[in-house]
Amino acid sequence: MENMRNLVRAETLGFCMGVRRAVEIVYDALSPDTPKPIYTFGPIIHNPSIIADLETRKVTVLEDPEKASGTVIIRAHGVTPEVKRVLKEKAKVLIDATCPRVVSSLGKVATYAEQGYHIIIAGDKNHGEVQALEGYAGTYKVINTIEEARSIEAAGKTLIISQTTFDRNTYDQIYSILKKKYPGIIMIDSICPATERRQAALQALADKVEAILVVGGKNSANTRRLFQTAQTYCRYSWHIEDVRDIPEDVYRFDPIGITAGASTPDWVIDEVERKLKSVPYDQQEKK
Fold first, then answer.
1. Which residue is catalytic, options 11, 63, 89, 129?
2. Enclosing domain of residue 69
3. Helix boundaries (H) for the chain
4. Mean pLDDT value across the chain
């Protein structure tokens, strides 16, 4: 008799509020009345499945603001003030889908920059949100590691803020190092609670399963960090983008845990789960 495979989903996984909002804004814009062509400035989120689906609906990713026309939707990560100015000038309709938490971070950086603060940004310098923060910062430095925090030099009034999807533990250690060097430094707690909830849920999941699949785009910062955490707590962990990436080795295990990054749509997670359930568990596979 075939044995049904046991699957356990992390308590918190998949779309966060900001991503879900951005995706809904794009799909809501797909109406006959919306001026064409329709663009998103940069990928609306870091998920290839969503991007591919939008391409079939003739939504194109725009990289150069000078080439904007028709309708342009600003992605969840936000943009610099200069990019936004050009988009307003070139596009017939501009829709801002920036995550509200990112909007808050941008506003705080702008306020402190106007007061003459040097801004330290903890995050990935190639990430859209970090690049948007740079545009509001005036004088700034981007760091991503504890080692960089130890070597950084700053003068005068200093503020530190992080990418909303940055790792909490790393951010706390960076701040502790900088606090000793610059006692007057101001720290903005900008990490999204959804990021922390996903990390905590993953740690709890690891105690219940033999293997873990982390579902999400390979270029998604928060998904990569989830995978790094999964590797810490579970020896058998894989990062996959969708059902096509499921490794054969995972079928040797039971139960299997599933988690997903904040930019992973529900239907992608559901497809992965259905595929795993379709292959019966055979204890002989472990031998």
1. 129
2. 17-98
3. 17-28, 48-56, 81-90, 100-114, 128-137, 146-151, 168-181, 193-206, 221-233, 266-278
4. 94
